[in-house]
Amino acid sequence: MDFALTDEQRMLEETLTRLVADQVSPEQRRTMLAATPNGASALWRTFAELGLLHMPFSEDVGGLGGDGTDLMIIMQALGRGLVPEAYLAGLVLPGQLLALTANSDQQTQWLTPLLEGEHQLAFAWQEHNARYDALAIATQATQQDGQWQLSGRKDVVLNLEAAAASLVTARLDNGKLGLFIVPANAPGTSSYFYRTIDDQPAGDLTLDNVKLPPANCLSDDVGDALAEVLALGRAALCAQAIGAMEEACDQTLAYLKERKQFGMPLSTFQALQHRMVDMHLHLEQSRSMAILAATSLTLPASERDYKIAAAKAYCGESARFIAEQAIQLHGGMGMSEECYVASYAKHLVMFDHHLGDSDYHLETVSELLKVAQQCCLEKLKWSAICQTHSAS
To answer: What are the residue ranges of helices labelled H in the chain?
Structure first.
């Protein structure tokens, strides 16, 4: 298989690299994180002008028709610069759900402004007792007097404070899973905002008999679309982690070359050289798994989920390893806010918990392997029966 980028993809990569280097220095990033959400930022408007907001979406909904590799290029560049914009949480995940479930009127109202950079959205799917299982939903949605009524709570909703609306999953009376769009500050909603360990803005969303018109129901059976979008999100997260792991390795190597002990640079000590080699081995193996995830998005659901779960599990373990090694090789200063590698370490540790941690995805891989083995046994059984009948 040819993994070389096309000319357009190389141009995209170079453009993003220059943009991130110019506009997301450590000082600029701290300023962005400290700013109160108030409409689209200057960087988000630049994303819109460059077509980055349209890139991951199909041409049918007004996008540029980018594939998994295009998204990987974007996410890797954003991860390398620790760009604080909610590209995945505020655009890709809710936008793809809208593209898969919304009718033309709903897309005109919510998806088109999203792609134009006029607003951002949030995807509220996690619940306290679900442990990353997007189908273990306790939030309830019932129909009363021609309206939908939602009650429940969603935890760790990324980009909640800046979102014009949240896409909320809820269990219907018939047992199926529905998807609803809940405008910000709708009557009956309350939010608690905070920052995750790696400084991402998030919040908990409480729904207390929130009444919505029928038009706010995007789907009354969102299971397949939800699985597809979560698979896309996990592949994108793997690519973002690769960018962060690259920068963590580069910063650690630069520090070892600069820092001296006993009159010699730390990089000349063989034990530390071995640890840097281990970091790069984990990086390159994770890169291969991230490419596997990005190229598996168009496969049948079971094969797609198996490969992406394997990639997320491996990248999660590698991210933690590189984060720990980067901190240890920097010594005590690696724990300080002034040392920028600490921000990458926190981001890599949190990456493992977004959209399912390593343990969760290893369990998924194990379950899918059992199903595949059972299917193979059934095929062998029927093949033997057919051969017996043919012989008789």
So the answer is: 7-23, 26-34, 42-50, 68-80, 87, 93-101, 104-106, 112-115, 223-258, 270-294, 301-330, 341-351, 358-391
**Which residues fall within 8 angstroms of residue 120, CB to CB, at 6 or more apart?**
40, 44, 86, 90, 91, 114, 159, 162, 163, 164
Q: Which residues of 280-315 are buried (b: 16+ CB within 10 A; e: fewer)?
A: eebbeebbebbbbbbbbbeeeeeebbbbbbbbbbbb
Cα–Cα distance measured from residue 117 to residue 315, given in angstroms and rounded to the nearest whole number:
31
Are 99 and 107 in contact, with CB atoms under 8 Å apart? Answer: yes
Residues paired with 150 in a beta bridge: 141, 210
Tell me: the pLDDT tens digits for 266-305?
A: 888 889 899 999 999 999 999 999 999 999 999 999 899 9
| Residue 212 three-state SS | strand
Structure tokens at 60: 């049918």
Q: Is 17 exposed, middle or buried (0-12, 13-18, 19+ CB in 10 A)?
A: middle
Amino acid (1-letter code) at residue 180? F
pTM: 0.90
How many residues are listed for the chain in this entry? 392
Task: Report CA 291 to chain centroid distance, whole Å.
Answer: 15
